[in-house]
Amino acid sequence: MPRSPNLNPYCESWVWRTRAEVLNHFIVFGEGHLRHILDRWHIHYHFQRPYQGLGQVPIGSDLPPAETLEEFCSDDVVCHESLGGLLKHFERPAAA
């Protein structure tokens, strides 16, 4: 219902994004399967996904802002996949 005073825009955004980016890609086979999918999505959403307003740094991390493009080397990037490759997280290993 548009303009309903009881709607929470943050919850509505999360529910829409969860359905559009994750749940529409699966046939869920029970509560355990749904919980697994939503747990992986929650980890990705809050700890791995970059956020534009925070210098591309995930909310749950203490990382400094990203380097400038001149300092970046794509050879060091490692891709981590979950949920059959639907969710992807790219990172560079820590310097030894």
How would you describe what is shown here?
The protein has 96 residues and is an alpha+beta fold. The chain has one domain (9-91). The chain has helices at residues 9-21, 31-48; strands spanning 78-82, 87-91. The protein has a two-stranded antiparallel ribbon. The mean pLDDT is 75.
Keyphrases for this structure?
single chain; about 100 residues; alpha+beta; two-stranded antiparallel sheet; 2 helices; about 30% helix
What's the quick description here?
The protein is α+β, with helices and mostly antiparallel strands and about 100 residues long. The chain contains two helices and two strands, in the order H-H-E-E.
Strand order of the largest sheet: 1-2
Question: What's the order of the H and E elements?
Answer: HHEE
Overall domain count: 1
| Distance between the first and last residues' Cα | 54 Å
Low-confidence segments, given as residue ranges, are: none
Helix content: 25-40%
Structural shape: extended
Structural class: alpha+beta
Radius of gyration: 17 Å
How much strand? 5-15%
Number of helices: 2
